[in-house]
Every structure is written in C-alpha cells, then in structure tokens.
Amino acid sequence: MTDARLGLAIRRAAIVTLVWTVPVIIGTAGHYFGIMADGGSMPASHVVGNNFALWYVWIPASLAILWAYRRLPFSRRGWPIAVAAHLGIFVAVFLGQAWLTLVIGHATGHVQPNMRFVDRMMPLLMDLPAFDTLIYGGVIAVAVGLDYARRYRDRDLRASNLETQLERARLEALQMQLQPHFLFNALNSIAMLVRRERKQEALDVVIGFGELLRYVLDEAGTIDQPLAAELQFVRRYLEIEKVRHQERLRVTVSVGSEAERALVPNLLLQPLVENALKHGISRLPKGGEVRITAERRGTMLHIEIENDGPPLPEGFSVDATDGVGLRNLRDRLAALVGETGAFHLDTAPGGNGVVAVIEMPFRERDRVTLERTA
User: Fold this and answer.
1) Closest CA to 355 of 284, 289, 256, 296
2) Is 102 within the bounds of a domain?
3) 292 - beta bridge partners?
C-alpha cells in the first residue's frame, strides 16, 4: 500500500471512529442518568463498556459495508453474492456485540462469571437484531448518498474539464483566425510598396515581416504573455508601418514597469494599433500620432491606444462591428476574463481621434500555453 492510500485509509478510519463515538457518548449519558433517575445504581464502567461494545463494533462493520456496497453491487447476476456478503457482515456485527458485552460484563462484574457465550446471545436475540437492522440500513443509506455524491462530483468535474477544453479550443481557433488576418495585411503593405517601386523599403518590410512571422509561429500556442513581449511585437510592427508612412507616423509608448509584467492575451495590441493606423493616421494628410499607455490601477490593468484622426461614427458599437480584429479581440477577452474585464472604443477627448480602452484583472504568473498537437 502506498503512503497516499495508507494516509487515506487512516483518515477514513478516524472519521468513522469519530462518527461512532457520538452515539457512545449519548448512549452512556442516557443510560447512566436514566438509571439514576429511577433510583437504581450501576457502575459507570459497565455503562461505558456496554455502549462501547454495542457501538464500536460498527467501526469495522461500517468500513466493511462501504467496501461491500462499492465492490459487490446488487446487479442482476451479482446480487446473490452481495446479499450473502451483507448477511455475513450483519451476523458478524451481532456476534461481535454479544461477545464484547460478555467480556466487558465479566470485567465489570455485571454479568455472572459462569455465563457462557450462548447464554449471553439468547437475550440479545430478542432486542439487538431489529435495532441492528435499522443501524445497518442507515449505513447503507449513507453509502448510497456518498456514491451519488461521488458520481455527481465526477460528472461535474468531467463537465468542467470538457468546458475548459472547449474554451481552449475556441481561444486557439480565434487566435488562428487573427494570424492570417494580420499576415494578409502585412503582405498587402509589401505589395503596395512594390507597386510604387519603393524597392528598398519593400525589402526592409520583408525582413521585418519575416521577424514578425517567426514570432507569430513561435507563439502560436500561447494564450497569454507579459505585456512587455506584446509591446516588443507591436514595436516591430510599427517599424514596418513607419517604412510605409515615414514621417506621417509618430508613436508614443508610456508603460510602467509593473504594467509590463502583467499577463495579457497574445496579439492583444496589434489589432488595435492596426485599426488606429487604418482608420486614423492614414486618413490624415499630415499623418498623426499613436499613443500607447498602460498602468496598473489597483487589481486592474488599464490599457489605452489613442490615435489622431476622425472621431467614431455616430452609433458605433464594438459588438456590432464587422472588423475581424476588433470582433476577435472582444471574443477573446470575453473568454479569458469574462465580466471582470471591459473593452470599448470612444472618441478621444477633444473630439478628434479614437481611444481604445481595455481593462482586465492584473495577473502576474507563468504563461498559459496550449498543448500543441503533433
């Protein structure tokens, strides 16, 4: 027997002993004070010993009943063996009670020294079987209750594991959806530079794109990562975009060291930065600025990505948008942090530009990585 199984067996025996100690105490007190109330007298040792004999026999009996219930079910073919086993346990309980009461009675002087075991059994046959049947039925009822509780617990555990697996599969599918979207946009930028015969710039973009592609493939199974790593990816992305926008694109990043350690969903910032460039900076003749800020606010991480450009259209809603990046980000945040997080887009203060705001619980632990399939 392993140490774990031995420890579990000891704990079960201790619990069962504690359970059957309660009726010993109650029975002793009831018998003792009942005898005193009737004006009789009986040695306390005999009262305690007699209750000990009647009740403590159920300690090994309870363990045997639980074992028989689990290992010998009342199936169509196995019920004769189960019935025989339970009858054997029941008889053993009665014989044990008779023997212990005889031994304790001899020790306390309450039973005549010449009384035999058979003589002791005869009066007990009138009282104990019906009493023991009720107790035995109660133990069986507890065994049934424990079995159903275990089944419900196992079912809930399986359901929880299945839900976790489905959620991870959903997250992986969402991330796989986002990666082709990003790669397509990057290739489109390269094609635009080639058409404009900006060959050196196109080559620089291809090199930078190769680094981003390597990062995306390496992190394909990562659900979340430190914000610092996400910022590094976004900076590489912006370097590519600066080749295309040149002086028209200005970037400001203000992120505290504590916020950099926070875990965020993989590819969190890039879709928002891309959205800021596409719908903000690219529409301004003189370009504009993209500002990325992040800070810890108590138990929450607060992230803002703001751009110069046109304000949001009237009635705009993230829930109603057709944009792949925004819809994907909304779904991933909902799956990872649920109602504890928030994501919304607003017109920037002053009426010019748009600010994307993300709030999520501040977490700082090992990265959660999906198991890659071969």
Assistant:
1) 289
2) yes
3) 253, 305
CA 88 to chain centre: 43
CA atoms of 260 and 269, how far apart (whole Å): 13
Continuous segment of H or E residues that includes residue 193:
helix 117-195
Tell me, yes or no, whether 186 and 106 share the same domain: no
Model pLDDT for residues 105-129, shown as the tens digit of each residue: 777 766 667 777 777 777 777 778 8
The number of beta carbons lying within 10 Å of the beta carbon of residue 91 is 12
- CA nearest 55: which of 85, 30, 22? 22
> pLDDT, tens digit, for every residue of 14-61?
888 888 888 878 777 776 666 555 555 666 666 777 777 788 888 888
- CA separation for the pair 254, 153 (Å, rounded): 48
* Integer Cα distance of 348 and 307 in angstroms: 8
Determine the pLDDT at residue 103.
Answer: 80
Helix (H, G, I), strand (E, B) or coil at 293: strand
Degrees, nearest 5: CA angle 119-120-126: 100
Q: What is the pLDDT of residues 345-369, one digit of tens each?
A: 888 887 788 999 999 999 886 544 4
Domain CATH for 197: 3.30.565.10
Q: Which of 115, 133, 151 is where one domain is finished?
A: 115
In this structure, the answer to whether residues 111 and 233 fall within a common structural domain is: no
pLDDT band at 175 (very low <50, low <70, confident <90, very high): low
Look up the pTM and report it: 0.50
Tell me the residue range of the domain where 17 lies.
Answer: 3-115
Within its chain, how far is the Cα of 357 from the centroid?
28
For residue 20, the Cα-to-chain-centroid distance in whole angstroms is 35
- The most confident of the ranges 87-96, 210-219, 240-249, 263-272 is 87-96
DSSP type of residue 369: B
Three-state DSSP class for residue 99: helix
- Helices 117-195, 324-337: axis angle to 10 degrees equals 160
Overall residue count recorded for the chain in this entry? 374
Those residues with Cβ within 8 angstroms of residue 42's Cβ, 6 or more apart along the chain or in another chain:
31, 32, 35, 110
Contact between 245 and 287 (Cβ < 8 Å): yes
DSSP 138-177: HHHHHHHHHHHHHHHHHHHHHHHHHHHHHHHHHHHHHHHH
User: What's the rounded Cα separation, in Å, for the pair 190 and 205?
Assistant: 7
